[in-house]
Amino acid sequence: MGLNDTPSGERIHIGFFGRRNAGKSSVVNAVTGQSLAVVSDTKGTTTDPVSKAMELLPMGPVLITDTPGFDDVGELGALRVQKTRQVLGRTDVAILVVDATEGMTDVDRQLLELFRTQQLPYLIVWNKCDLLDTVPNGADQELYVSATEKTNITLLKERIAQLGKTDEEKFQLVGDLIHPEDLVVLVIPIDKAAPKGRLILPQQQVIRDVLESDAAAVCVKEYELRGLLERLGTDPALVITDSQVFAKVSADVPERIPLTSFSILMARYKGLLDEAVRGVAAVEKLEHGDRVLIAEGCTHHRQCDDIGSVKIPRWLKNYTGKHLEIETCSGRDFPEDLSRYALVIHCGGCMLNEREVRSRMKRARAQGIPITNYGITIAYMQGILRRCIGMFPHLLAELEEEP
Q1: What DSSP state is assigned to residue 250?
Q2: Which of 62, 114, 273, 351 could be cross-linked to 267 through a Cys-Cys bond (beta carbons 3.0 to 4.6 Å apart)?
């Protein structure tokens, strides 16, 4: 997979924020080396967040987003500000662009407070320094630039790259669960819901992670799984399945062989797994008329037996025996207010970066709304959750502590 093919969920997300006419778009264009955003002397030219995938050395693949002015006015302005807040939820590095000729304003300080509240690494970029009589020495988190004269733009890229570095331990998808020369069986249904001619992203990423761990990946459809296990002559180290066929795969895979799903691995990779295991118990408390939000991070054409809009609602109804109000959302349209829901069931989040998945999780937690994910929910309703998280002892211990 080349840099241009790196999924947006795997890129460092860099957001440019500020007031109208502070020169955000000019700075973004200078950093990217192309006209990503429209530039004008008219305030509020940027009406929607605009993103560009590129490589920013030494950081690597990034997604740069230019946002509308945070001081936008009127009803349309309020919508633009709301979109800017949504971008903050998925931003890894925040850049505050301030007009150096006008100085810091209350709007700029409000943005800085949002950065700090969300614990975002940030940099204050004083633009239009070419119009100053003297250029001050910026503090550690400040830099004076001129987008029009390209002053300090190379240095700005270097500073951004430094901010994007993290020493925080990041889970692998599966590499830390297996050993070199292990055999891993991947169960991949090929049906009308599968994308023609290709595998879905989590399947591709797991295969790559297995290979990078010097192990072997064997892919099989669910109806060929039992025969494959009989022919292997040795137990695989792990079986990973699409959650939609959990019931059949669990029946065909002996208990001695560890089993999990792509969705569960993706939940751990994105930082949602622990919360999802705790949240799934809310399924037992659902009552007639309760609203359940089923959230997908991507947008796609829904098939007639779509997992989010058809299968999970059907399994929920059969398991609970309750008449539930099911609502769905996709892409960036995750609600700010979750108070009307009794439960949120999220997809694996493969198209979202870790920051956005965690942001959604924290939003649900702050509002007291349980959140879980597709794979955990399906495994729970089919009575195999303990088996499917057996490789995570701390989660098993939590389940044992529940009444």
Answers
A1: H
A2: 273
Long-range Cβ pairs for the range 358-361 (8 Å, 24+): 358/270, 358/271, 358/272, 359/89, 359/90, 359/118, 360/89, 360/295, 360/334, 361/271, 361/272, 361/275
Cα distance between residue 30 and residue 69, in whole Å? 18
pLDDT digits (tens, 9 = 90+) for 73-90: 555 556 666 777 788 888
**Tens-place pLDDT, residues 139-164:** 788 999 999 999 999 999 888 888 87
Contacts of 300 (CB under 8 A, 6+ apart): 330
Using the Cα atoms of residue 200, residue 203, residue 205 and residue 211 in order, give the sign of their dihedral: negative
Residue with tokens 């879905």: 200
- The mean pLDDT of 209-222, rounded to a whole number, is 96
CA–CA distance, 282 with 342 (Å, rounded to integer): 8
Residues 6+ apart with CB under 8 A from 148: 26, 128, 130
pLDDT (tens digit, 9 = 90+) per residue, 135-145?
887 778 899 99
Banded pLDDT at 67 (limits 50, 70, 90): confident
pLDDT at 46: 47
State the DSSP string of 53-113.
Answer: EEEETTTEEEEEEE---TT--HHHHHHHHHHHHHHHTT-SEEEEEEETTT---HHHHHHHH
* Contacts (Cβ under 8 Å, ≥6 apart) of 314: none
Residue 83: name the closest of 293, 287, 332, 261 by CA.
332
Amino acid at 140: D
Residue-wise over 82-118: b if at least 16 C-beta within 10 A, else e? ebbebbbbbbbbbbbbbbbeeeeeebbeebbebbeee
Residue 312 confidence (pLDDT) above 50:
yes
pTM equals 0.78
Radius of gyration from C-alpha coordinates of the chain:
24
